[in-house]
């Protein structure tokens, strides 16, 4: 999939400091409804994006406070329905896509939940090495689903 | 978190009341507070989440650590007053069946 920044309605850049996670949560919380997601779906997407950003800060940047993460957001209106696409671009040089794995939830242990939460919430999750520079591009999509009657 | 967790003594343990969002910016601070209380080996630790509108997996990890410590020592841990978004992450992480979750502090005291 070719990334074209001009297709994205909202673009944000956040520095790799956890104190700003709440800012991105607030933005997604507003944009989710505009993309046709329900309140609960939006809450879940907020959590998924928060987990993805935390993973970049913690594992990708190893808590370095001076890195950046670019967040691009657009509404989707496709055969699969209305929804939201969120792309996170980082500049992590030490992580390869094949190192990113979710863990078995049957094992009770404190860490490793973030990736699982991402896959559980989002309809599509794709990690790619960035073609233009070192780093990883995470593309996530979530479609609105009518509640079962 | 918007403020330091409030710690109150119980006849058989401790009540930890948390307020504000719990994410990676504050989960290590929460871990320190809870570990200090766990070190006192309370028979029952109740974690009151009434004031927590949002929690991510770094917050959940702190609670899992606390549960493991209490279980290892044959002591109890209960969480109570979960708001909807916090219930959501417990369900997504399939921890709603692992923790003892109560609707109020009074109910949790009977754990």
Most extensive protein-chain contact, per-chain counts: A-B, 26 and 23 residues
Could you state the CATH homologous superfamily of chain B? Answer: STAS domain
The quaternary state of the protein chains shown equals heterodimer
What is the top-level CATH class of chain A? Alpha Beta
Major sheet: arrangement of strands of chain A: 1-2-3-5-4
> How many DSSP helices of chain A?
3
* Broad CATH class of chain B: Alpha Beta
* SSE sequence of chain A, one letter per element: EHHEEHEE
**Uncertain stretches of chain B:** none
Class inferred from helices and paired strands of chain B: alpha/beta
Number of distinct helices of chain B: 4
The second-level CATH architecture of chain B is 2-Layer Sandwich
Say how many strands of chain A there are: 5
Instruction: Give the termini distance of chain A in whole angstroms.
Output: 35 Å
| Widest β-sheet, arrangement of strands of chain B | 1-2-3-4-5
Average the pLDDT over all residues of chain A and give the rounded result: 90
Query: What's the total count of β strands of chain B?
Result: 5
- Any low-confidence stretches of chain A, pLDDT <50, length ≥5? none
Main sheet specs of chain A: 5 strands, antiparallel
CATH superfamily of chain A: Histidine kinase-like ATPase, C-terminal domain
| CATH T-level topology of chain A | Heat Shock Protein 90
């Amino acid at each position: 999939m070719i990334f074209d920044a001009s297709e994205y309605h909202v673009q944000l850049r956040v520095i790799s400091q956890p104190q700003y996670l709440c800012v991105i949560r607030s933005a997604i919380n507003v944009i989710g409804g505009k993309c046709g997601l329900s309140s609960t779906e939006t809450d879940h997407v907020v959590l998924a994006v928060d987990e993805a950003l935390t993973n970049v800060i913690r594992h990708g940047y190893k808590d370095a406070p001076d890195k950046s993460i670019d967040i691009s957001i657009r509404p989707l209106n496709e055969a699969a329905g209305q929804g939201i696409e969120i792309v996170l671009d980082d500049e992590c040089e030490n992580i390869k896509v094949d190192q990113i794995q979710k863990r078995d939830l049957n094992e009770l242990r404190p860490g490793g939940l973030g990736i699982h939460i991402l896959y559980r919430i989002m309809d599509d999750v794709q990690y790619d090495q960035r073609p233009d520079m070192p780093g990883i591009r995470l593309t996530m999509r979530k479609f609105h689903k009518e509640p079962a009657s | 978190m918007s403020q330091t967790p409030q710690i109150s003594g119980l006849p058989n343990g401790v009540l930890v009341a948390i307020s504000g969002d719990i994410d990676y910016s504050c989960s290590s601070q929460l871990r320190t507070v809870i570990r200090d209380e766990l070190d006192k080996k309370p028979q029952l630790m109740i974690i009151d989440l009434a004031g927590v509108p949002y929690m991510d997996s770094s917050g959940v990890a702190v609670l899992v650590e606390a549960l493991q410590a209490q279980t290892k020592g044959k002591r109890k841990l209960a969480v109570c007053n979960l708001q909807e978004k916090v219930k959501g992450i417990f369900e997504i992480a399939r921890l709603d069946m692992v923790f003892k979750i109560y609707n109020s502090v009074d109910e949790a005291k009977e754990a």
